[in-house]
Amino acid sequence: MRVKICGIIQPQQSLAIAALGATALGFICVPTSPRYVTIEQIQAAIAPLSDKIDKIGVFANSDITEISHIVTTSGLTAIQLHGDESPEFCTQLRQALPQVEIIKALRVRSLEHLQTTNNYIDVVDTLLLDAYHPQQLGGTGKTLDWQMLQEFKPRLPWFLAGGLTPDNIIDALSKLHPNGIDLSSGVENSPGDKNLDKVALLFQRLNTF
Ligand SMILES: O=C(O)c1ccccc1N[C@@H]1O[C@H](COP(=O)(O)O)[C@@H](O)[C@H]1O
C-alpha cells in the first residue's frame, strides 16, 4: 500500500519520513496554504531522496503553464489536483506532462458528488478522496464519512485522505481498502512541522495490521 505524508516543508524531515517508510511525500504548491513551499524548498527537500520515493506536488486551480514550470524545475514526479479541475483540464495537463502521474483529488460533499469520480477514470492515473470543508481546500484534519465510501470501488487506484491519524488509521483500513493513504495534519506539530514520533507510530501500527 502507498503511504503518502503530505505538507512537508523542512528538507531534513523529508529524509527522516522516507526512512520511516513513506512511499510518497507531498509538497503543497498552493500559495494560500500555511504549508506552501517554493520551488527552491521542494528542490532542497527532494535532493536527498531515493528515486523510489514519489514526490507529489499538490496544486489547486493553477494553470498548466505554472504547474509545468514547477514540476519540471523542481523534480516532482506526480501532480495532485486538489481544486475544481475538470476532466478536460486533466487531459490537457496529460498532454503537457505525459510522464507525470496525475492524481485527481475530490473533496467529497455527498454520495452523489462521489459519482463525479467516474468522469476522471480515463484521464488521470489515480484518485484521492478528501473531506469537504467549506472554507479550506485541504489539510483540514476533517475525516470523511467512511460509511459512505463502503461501495466505492473505482477502476483506478485511489488514496484515502482526510483527517487520518496514527489513532484512527487501523479503524479506517479495517472498513475500507484504498490503494494508498495520505496523512498531513494528523502527523504534525503545527502546519508544515511534522511530528516524527507520530509518523513512526503510524508505521508501527501499519506494520502490525
Ligand atoms: O495541506 C494543505 O495545506 C493543503 C492545501 C491545499 C490543498 C490540499 C492540502 N492538503 C491536502 O489535504 C489532504 C488531507 O489533509 P489532512 O490529513 O486532513 O490534514 C491531503 O491530501 C493533503 O494533500
Write the layout of secondary structure elements.
Blueprint: E1 2-6, H1 11-20, E2 24-28, H2 39-46, E3 54-59, H3 64-74, E4 78-81, H4 87-96, E5 101-108, H5 111-114, E6 126-131, E7 158-160, H6 169-175, E8 180-183, E9 188-190, E10 193-194, H7 196-207
Parallel strand pairs: 1-2, 1-8, 2-3, 3-4, 4-5, 5-6, 6-7, 7-8
Antiparallel strand pairs: 9-10
Helix pairs in contact: 1-2, 1-7
Give a short synopsis of this structure.
Helices cover 30% and strands 22% of the residues.
Give the tags:
single chain, 209 residues, alpha/beta, TIM Barrel, eight-stranded parallel β-barrel, two-stranded antiparallel ribbon, globular, binds ligand LGQLAAA5
Structural account:
It is a single chain. The protein is α/β, with parallel strands linked by helices and 209 residues long. The chain has one domain: TIM Barrel. The protein contains seven helices and ten strands. The strands form two sheets. It has an eight-stranded parallel barrel. It has a two-stranded antiparallel ribbon with strand order 9-10. Helix 1 crosses helix 2 and helix 1 runs parallel beside helix 7. The chain starts with a strand and ends with a helix. The site of ligand LGQLAAA5 has 26 residues, from strand 2, strand 6 and strand 8. The site of the ligand O=C(O)c1ccccc1N[C@@H]1O[C@H](COP(=O)(O)O)[C@@H](O)[C@H]1O has 26 residues, from strand 2, strand 6 and strand 8. It catalyses: N-(5-phospho-beta-D-ribosyl)anthranilate = 1-(2-carboxyphenylamino)-1-deoxy-D-ribulose 5-phosphate. Keywords: Amino-acid biosynthesis, Aromatic amino acid biosynthesis, Isomerase, Tryptophan biosynthesis. This is N-(5'-phosphoribosyl)anthranilate isomerase. Pathway: Amino-acid biosynthesis; L-tryptophan biosynthesis; L-tryptophan from chorismate: step 3/5. It is an enzyme of class 5 (isomerase).
